[in-house]
């Protein structure tokens, strides 16, 4: 489980993909035929399946928004950290 959260924190796109999968999987209500259809379909068909499903309740939508914001922030911090490491050292520090 910890590995999953580490992978999700690496990139917001991966987090969004996981969210879409989780929402689609939850929306299928563990129907074996629907799950089989989900895995055998193309990504475009999967998006259509998600759009046809009923919307989540407001509490879950709010949690997804917070999760997305946190993943985006972590990604921005990681990118900023990488840019800072590429900057040259000032004359008073370094070699």
Give an overview in words:
It is a single chain. It is elongated and about 65 Å long. It has helices at 2-10, 12-27, 32-40, 43-52, 58-86. The protein has one domain (2-86). 77% of the residues lie in helices and 0% in strands. It has five helices and no strands. By secondary structure, the chain is an all-alpha fold.
Key descriptive features of the protein:
95 residues, 5 helices, mainly alpha
In short:
With 95 residues, the chain is mostly helical.
Tell me the layout of helices and strands.
Elements: H1 2-10, H2 12-27, H3 32-40, H4 43-52, H5 58-86
Oligomeric state of the chains in view: single chain
Average per-residue pLDDT, rounded, comes to 77
Q: Give the percentage of residues in beta strands.
A: under 5%
Helix vs. strand class: mainly alpha
Compute the number of helices: 5
How many individual domains?
1
The radius of gyration is: 19 Å
Global morphology: elongated
Span from first to last CA? 42 Å
Strand elements, count = 0
Largest sheet: none
């Amino acid at each position: 489980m910890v590995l999953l959260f580490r992978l999700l924190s690496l990139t917001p796109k991966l987090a969004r993909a996981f969210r879409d999968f989780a929402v689609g999987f939850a929306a299928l209500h563990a129907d074996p035929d629907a799950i089989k259809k989900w895995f055998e379909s193309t990504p475009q068909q999967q998006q259509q399946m998600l759009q046809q499903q009923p919307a989540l309740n407001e509490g879950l939508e709010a949690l997804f928004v917070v999760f997305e914001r946190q993943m985006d922030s972590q990604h921005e911090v990681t990118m900023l950290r990488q840019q800072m490491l590429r900057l040259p050292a000032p004359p008073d520090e370094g070699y």
